[in-house]
Amino acid sequence: MEKSASGHLLLPEKGGSRGSLGFLCKLRKMTTRVILFLALLSILVAAAHARGHHKGRHGRHLAAQNVTYDGKSLFIDGRREILFSGSIHYTRSTPQIWPDLLDKARRGGLNVIQTYVFWNAHEPEQGQFNFQGNYDLVRFIKLVQAYNMFVTLRVGPFIQAEWNHGGLPYWLREVPGIIFRSDNEPYKNYMQGFVTKIIQMMKDEKLFAPQGGPIILAQIENEYNHIQLAYEEKGDSYVQWAANMAVAQQIGVPWVMCKQRDAPDPVINACNGRHCGDTFSGPNKPYKPEIWTENWTAQYRVYGDPPSRRSAEDIAFSVARFFSKGGNLVNYYMYHGGTNFGRTSSAFTTTRYYDEAPLDEYGLQREPKWSHLRDVHKALLLCRKAILGGIPTVQKLNEFYEIRTYERPGTDMCAAFLTNNHTIEPATINFRGVNYYLPPHSISILPDCKTVVFNTLNVVSQHNSRNFEKSPAANNFQWEMFNEATPTTKKMPIYQNIPAELYGLLKDTTDYAWYTTSFELCQEDMPLVPGVVPVLRVMSLGHSMVAFVNGDIVGTGHGTHEEKSFELDRPVQLRVGTNYISLLASTVGLPDSGAYMEHRFAGPKSITILGLNKGPLDLTANNWGHSVGLKGEGMKVFTEEGALRAKWKPLSPVPRPITWYKTRFATPEGNGPVAIRMTGMGKGLIWVNGQNIGRHWMTFLSPLGQPTQSEYHIPRSYLNPLDNLLVIFEEEGVAPNQVEILNVNRDTICSFISESDPANVNSWVSRRGNFHPIVDVVGPAATLECETGKKIVAVEFASFGNPTGNCGGYSLGSCNAAATQQIVEQQCLGQPTCTVALNRAVFNQNGADLCPDLLVKDLAIQARCS
User: Fold this and answer.
1) Topology alike, domains 468-482+634-743 and 485-629
2) Residue 265: which residues within 8 A CB-CB, separation 6 or more?
3) What CATH architecture is 468-482+634-743?
4) Which range among 117-126, 478-487, 560-569, 771-780 shows the weakest confidence by mean pLDDT?
5) Which residue among the candidates 223, 356, 730, 731 is catalytic per the annotation?
6) Where is pLDDT greater, at 354 or 20?
7) 669 is catalytic
8) Distance of CA 241 to the CA centre of its chain
9) 485-629, which class in CATH?
10) Alpha helical stretches, state H, 132-232
11) Is the CATH code 2.60.120.740 the one for domain 774-865?
């Protein structure tokens, strides 16, 4: 057996990541002591939880008066705090959804909500402000306070955030001489004007902590280090100016700059990333606390991306690691991603945003991520006094194993973090005379330096699976269509010699613009070689295009998030005489990052006909007509009033491109989330009762051969009580025959536990926001729990043996106890919650050991709530 230099016994486990049954037996002997200790902790945490949130639910909101900091932590009203924060953007949900999101965030253990301020949402036209509906910033912040949480306000005003133009309004591009995010007077003047307006609005509403409000931190700029070098000395001086301008606002709470190594005093530099506990070099001054502004809970997706995930275990590890090393505030980006409604997403970003967050796009709890993070928060809160008041010590046992303790001599204050950073092998570490089993890449938290109450890899929470179910009431469609006419060069509003730059033409008022030109061909111009067909070549700076020649579609083309430019090459049928080219060019959101954003361009750059008898015909400078937007947009055919202006007709058996589709649908049953599945469609936009719910793009497939996003969120608040107008604009030649309205739920719940999981013996289960030690079960147990008001109505899968798969898709293995289904049904059917012990004697009802060669068996259960 190996010993470290400090004498700690190291016992690497070679039997797999779940440990050994021999160690399980040792732990069982400790069960009684562990249960009593956890019961006491449960009572204390539940009482603190009730005290902390009773006020918020009855109108007596939190009211901080003073926020300061030192090198260890923030002080709120003179009290050191450890802070768990989550990003929830008011613009990416609706006021009707905000209370549910904030309640779930609070119950998930958060005490801070972080949000950006979205300049282009609030000032889309210069001097014209909008703070209504989804953009009611003050209402959102006051609601956060009502739920007894603090706020970090990321004023920016450049925010990136995968939001259109990084939050900068389009009109800013047209200010003479402007250079974004640089020591440039025009930009600084407008930036300071907006920042001052927002700060004054917060002051007028008494929302900063010294005024009794919830805002305890504010952020200026955003990840500027990424581009600072591009501006040379103008970048360095801009950082100084931005910090000084912010501090001069005198808001009474600290300012932060994320990913800004040279953040000027007193601004705090903060970390963004997935593992800031190990990758962050720390504050740039010893008297600043460690703040993590973005712990990425998943990855946002752009069209063409495959699914992206980050496990609950990895996030929990990163959080425990950060606080074990003296971190003070962690923020999950995102805690709820939500929806990029309308045209608000940045270039090529999907309508769905950070769906893999603890709260998914629809605001439903994604398990086990939501519960597992809630439990790490609770475990860390039990260590709060030691972390903030104790003296830290570090014992590095080798390159993988580490013990960090916080204790105050002469008191019983002590907390320990035991870390195994080996990604494959588990280990046993001896700490103060006791052996502790550590799974691979995990941290065990001991709030009394004795008892493990949480291990980051041991998920005791149930899992769930999201269901999209076709609404019985809402899918009796009667579709009608309205075709956009393909324009020629006649009667176009704008003419110029060469194609206009697309961003400047659209001014971010629509995705679409028509470009048209005409040219003459003689018989001798036509190809002489039989079978040779001329080719239309369009070189475009982005983002997408539908090309027509003589009124007939010849093809589509598009760029990507990484490379927005593209080349469209399509064979075309030309004729002797006049030929017309019509290009419907479109954007998919403006860029949101990088230096010199004001110099980004899009649209057709070069147009050529190849394969003619006399050689290539360059039409780039052939005099082009331009028209901004679509006829249907101008008529507002997606509204009740506008739909009456169009001449709708029945669906054509041969769908045409550039077509509007209209139908009505009944409001789906229940009160849960609603979505529309766009199977069979191409690319375009969707409106429900005049509300634009975003861009759809089904034909941009991921490397897996599937659309990046198939379902699109329809907020319940957008629906009428009975009947609703659905309008789809479709660029490609397809019809909405397979479109479906769906109800969305997470009523499929699962538990997967193993005999080799010793941590289940001395763990708590989490119910209704409190800790409950498992006192009625000896050994591992599967616990299932429905949402409030629902019961288990079906056991869809149950297997004791070696089942495989994940929640929503389990399969039987080669070993299965036939009695499992019946046993689980007896325990669980009709119950809102149930616990099933993992006991071989119970499952092997005939007395013989099932599959004796299988040393370690698993229990998988999938149930349905209703």
Assistant:
1) yes
2) 285
3) Sandwich (2.60)
4) 771-780
5) 223
6) 354
7) no
8) 32
9) mainly beta
10) 137-146, 185-204
11) yes
